[in-house]
Structure formats: C-alpha cells, structure tokens
Amino acid sequence: MKELNAIIENIGSTVLLAVNSGRYLKTLPRQFPRFIEHCYLIGYTTLPIVAILSFFIGSVLALQSGYSMQNFGAKQFIGTLVGMSMVRELGPVMVSILVAGRVGSAIAAELASMKVYQEIDALVTMNIPPERMLVMPRLVAVLFMMPVLTSIANLCGWFGGALVCKYTGFISVEPDAYFAALKRFMETKDVWDGLIKSEVFGFTVILVSCNIGLNTRGGPREIGASVTRAVVVSLILILVLDYFVTKALV
C-alpha cells in the first residue's frame, strides 16, 4: 500500500509541475537566453553521439536484415525496412534514451543539489517560482530540439544502411535502389508519427527529471539516488509510453 501511495503521489506531483510550468509560458520571451542555453545543452551537445549511434544502428540493421532477405530474394527492400524502422521506432526511442541518460540525469543532479543546499528555498523566498525559472524553459527547449535530433538520427541511420548495402558484397544494393525502396513505401504520416513520439518521450523525460530533482530530500547521498531514480523512471516510461503512443497512432 505504501508503494502504491508513493506512485500516486509522484504521478500527482509530476502532473502538477507540468500545469504550474505551463502557467508561466507567457514569460518565455524574458527567459529567452535561458531557453537558448537549454537548447544548446539538450540539442547541440547531444548531437554527436546521436549521429554516431544512429549511423551504426542503421548499418547493423541493414547488415542483419541482409542475411535473411537475400535468401528470399527481397534484398531490394532493405531500404524500406531500415527506413521504416528508424522513422517509426528506433529513431525516437534511441534519441529519448540518450536524452534521458545524458540530459535528464544532469537536470536531476542540478535541481537535487539546489534543493539539498536550499537554493530552491532561496528562490521561493525571493518570490521566484522554480517552475518559471528552472522547469518551463527546459520543457520548451526539449519540445523544440527533439524533432531536430530525431530527424538527424533518421538521416544518419538511413545513410549508414545505404553504405552497408553498397559495400557489403553479399548484399550489393546500390544507393539509388536503396533510397527508391525507402521512398516507395514510406509516407509522410510515418515521419510525423515518429516525431510525435519523440516529443512525448522528450517532454516526459525532462518533466520527470525536474520533478524528482525538485522533490529531493536529505543530504548529498540523496542527490545520487535522485539521479538514478530519474534515469530509471524515464527509461521505463519511454518503453511504456511507446506502446500506448504507437497504438494510438496506428
């Protein structure tokens, strides 16, 4: 019963944080420098690892599928398989997991430190709502950067698969045929579905990380516990939401 009450309490505090942060959306122009800073931290600093991992995920996907599809005479459809997998599933999920591990953990650590060392209490004393200064700019920044990161991840995955198809002897699919198969079966809706997923996942990761950081209690040891909890909860929610968002979009 205690565990159930804790879960309900955490869900309630997370929803309340989102609502309170949304109330200060009109103050975004005054928070613009902070918004740009968070866009840089969420997007630009995460971009290299997103590009590298996406490239090799697309490469491995093409390589693995090539073994099977050549036996059925269907290797000309490898571009379709890689393209659809990256756009609808692997791109949004992989980028969200990277954001949770790299950005969400940093946010939880920063806010937990501020809470433990009473900097949050100082903001409240000065009549500065933490939701306005610490949460809202991050939520808007992640909504702005997740489609960008996901689109780049998709492109890198496609090109990784194309290179493997061209330079792996037993596949030998030319890039023109690879991308022709990709364009033949992919629709605009598939791209939008993946971007919607990335928005939902990214928003959830940042919101959960902010909520856990702001609700940290205790001493320095609890900062590490909050970081771990933020990453674990974010990863679980990404996979759970992936099912429900996919079901809603199909």
Describe this structure in words.
The protein contains nine helices and no strands. It is mostly helical. It has one domain. Helix 1 packs across helix 8, helix 6 packs across helix 8 and helix 8 (188-214) runs antiparallel to helix 9. The radius of gyration is 21 Å and the shape is elongated.
Q: In brief, what are we looking at here?
A:
The chain is mainly alpha-helical and 250 residues long.
Could you list some keywords that capture this structure?
250 residues; mainly alpha; 9 helices; elongated
Show the helix and strand layout.
Blueprint: H1 2-22, H2 32-44, H3 47-69, H4 78-116, H5 119-125, H6 130-167, H7 175-185, H8 188-214, H9 220-249
Helix pairs in contact: 1-6, 1-8, 2-6, 3-4, 3-6, 4-6, 4-7, 4-8, 4-9, 6-8, 8-9
